[in-house]
Request: fold
Amino acid sequence: MKNRVLLLGVVFCVLVGSIQQCVGAERTIGRDELLGKMRGFWIGQLVGNYMGFPFETCYVKEPIGFLVERYYTHRDDASIVLNRWDLRGYIPVAAAWLEGAPSDDDTDIEFVTLHAVEKFGLDINYEEITQMWKKHINRKIWVANRTARSLMDKGLVPPETGKKENNKNWFQIDPQLVNEIWSAFYPGMTEKAAARALWGARITNDDWGTHPTIAYGVMYSAAFFEKDVEKLVQMAQEAVGDAGPFAEGMGDVVRWHKQYPNWRDCRKKIHEKYWAYEKGDYKAPVSVVSSLVNGLCGIMAVLYGEGDFMKTTGIAVSAGYDCDNQAATCAGLMGVLNGEECIPDELSKTFLLGDRKWEKPFNDQYINFTRDDLPICNKISDIAERIGRIAEKAILENGGKKTVRDGKVIYVVNCDF
Reply:
């Protein structure tokens, strides 16, 4: 038996003697359930972002010594190492004061992508996305995103802005946290989702720096229909292939997950081998915001979290490194997997509100203060509806159907798995 991975970033077929055609299946999902998963995606990212924010880059060699299961702020025990002196130590206070969820790069670049796809369509090209970046993304960007944006001002257009020879940060975490929206556009269509996520990743990254984005692109898309997290990770592995340190690391994490009951043992192994990864003459760049260690800790959190929102998000935060980003990605994935109802009220409705309680998560408000020339106050439910409209278009354009049963809209999705 011979296995071969075809990578448009993403597509794989198993070869047995001769090439077999990849076969998927039609799956159905009600519009209400689909939109609930879209809300879970957006709200989950917000929660994971805010839970990880206080601990961002504070824990490198060792993970946090306890499992993070709530929001921590400047008010917490002074013996706990966290970011106390800027917005990261005040997020629940800021959200209560703003009466909504403040924007950050875990969501606000996707917010731009949403507007870009609404304007140019799902087949948006690099010249068009460059227009949108130059108009809307000018502040509150870092590392590979910052470098790519600066290169745009010099006349470069993706994928040149992400190539190693131009972008010194080509290996950093940026694309895996800003391209999940492509999977929401393509629910159950993992090949399309991961291909477009890879397209987005190449704005800022190159080589194996794009591989975590492919992995999460597949898992997010499949999670609209598949709840088994081990199957999701397996699908991600097959899409990434077997070349490069992230692919090798995914295999290790899967093996360590079976070997070690405690995620902390797995995290120790990740740090020992992949913090300063070397193989033969190759030495990977080292960074607390590398896509390698952060991406692998996310895979670890998905496996050890076993599909539970709090457990998965808690592990993703407690693993350390650039933990707000990996937690946002993992929490958003759990929001897709289980729908918005899996997100605890104390993380989205009741924190620091005294006797008050918002009726909807984050008061149904997304407060954009980071992306220029876009609306400031946005209903989260409207954002989910807008993503849902694009997903409907993608479903219909890719062999799916829209029907009505018992007065409710049902989508028949032409899934590829």
Summary: Confidence is low (pLDDT under 50) at residues 1-22. The CA atoms of residues 301 and 337 lie 14 Å apart.
